[in-house]
Amino acid sequence: MTIAAIDIRQVRISRTLTIFRFSLLIVAIAGALISFKKLPRFVIPLIAAIISYSSGAATLPELKVTYKLLLDPLAFLLAIVPLAFLLDTLGFFKEISKIISSRKRIIGGLWIFASIITATCNLDAAVVLLTPIYVNVAKSHDADPVAVGMIPAICAQVASSFLPISNLTNLIGVQKTGISPIVFFEHMSLPGLSATLISWFAYTKFVKPIKAKNVEKVKYDKSIVIVGCVVVFALLVGFVFGPSFGVKAFEVALAGDLFLILYLRKIPIKTLPIGTTLLALSLAILSISLLNPFHLGFLVDASTPYLTLRTIFTVGAASNLINNLPATMLSVHLLSPHATTALYATLIGANMGPFLLNIGSLSWLLWLAIMKNVGIKVSLKDTSRIGILVVGPAFLISSIVLVLITF
């Protein structure tokens, strides 16, 4: 066999393997997005990842890259979700909702609270725990339960770029580049704040939730509020300043878990997000194995204002099509260790970009499942409309703000 014939054969094998890798990723994403009865969302992606490794489509070096990229982020996810449930068991969220409900500007208070919990305790915890509370608050005040219940899902997109711990995508990016929480906040706080404010104004203009009625002063447990606020404040201090002393975010969350477990005398083993962890790990393996045959580093370039905006919109478009978690993994894997501006652009695209389709973000999928559980059906048309009118302007303005403060 001639050298030319061998080269042609190798090209064909490489092409076939690439198609196979891509097919596995598409199947995994479809399995994660489509809801099957009695079948957890992580099962199909996990099977696809096992097939990928068993067939040689994913190699051992790729598994090592995935392990290094996701170890700390997934450890944090496993620690912070039980912590949020412990705060809920304490009654912290319920008591805060009572305080907000006794104010005239209920909607504004709910928006601020959802933004704070998203920024300090992770967006998934905010969506899972606050949505049912917000729906009940809306019903008790003759407000639209969909409009009010949607606040945590919107804030999960626009307010999840303040700190590394706010979003799993942020943690993945920080793990690659090694940026400290303080530096991260310095660069992402203005884009995040502008997105939160713009989306609020758009929300009040286009969604127009019914103004709360029959506002009455209600009694709340001050001791629960004090304990909860102390825990949240301590977490925030630990997340921001801990890395400077070698303390990782998941270790801070574990300390919070331990305190609340001793305080409440309850161990939240059943709340461990094992399924979400396996889902993220499976999609990471499939995404990284797909990239090897290509040289796509130019897609996450932020050396000029134009290239920065292109990176943001490219990652945003990819997030709408294949979900923001695999889109982030693909993009971050292409980054050089010191490509900080490109990382910020990537995260804005991944966190705020998937507003056209509700499949673009895991937080939206969580929210839809929760709304269904409380007996409220929400259509794709409704979520896309709110996404375009409320999150869309926030995405655009925050992108411009990032360019203005960078160049």
Secondary structure topology:
Elements: H1 3-33, H2 43-54, H3 60-90, H4 92-101, H5 106-121, H6 123-140, H7 145-149, H8 151-158, H9 168-177, H10 181-207, H11 222-241, H12 249-264, H13 274-291, H14 305-322, H15 324-334, H16 340-352, H17 362-373, H18 380-406
Describe the structure.
This protein has 407 residues and is mostly helical. It has one domain (3-406). The protein has 18 helices and no strands. It has helices at 3-33, 43-54, 60-90, 92-101, 106-121, 123-140, 145-149, 151-158, 168-177, 181-207, 222-241, 249-264, 274-291, 305-322, 324-334, 340-352, 362-373, 380-406. The model has no long low-confidence stretch (mean pLDDT 83).
Q: Evaluate the radius of gyration.
A: 22 Å
Query: In terms of per-residue confidence, which ranges show pLDDT below 50 for 5 or more consecutive residues?
Result: none
Helix content: over 70%
Largest sheet: none
Q: DSSP helix count?
A: 18
Helical/strand content category: mainly alpha
Kindly give the count of domains. Answer: 1
Task: Provide the residue-averaged pLDDT.
Answer: 83
Shape: globular
Distance between the termini: 56 Å
Strand content: under 5%
Number of E strands: 0
Order of helices and strands: HHHHHHHHHHHHHHHHHH
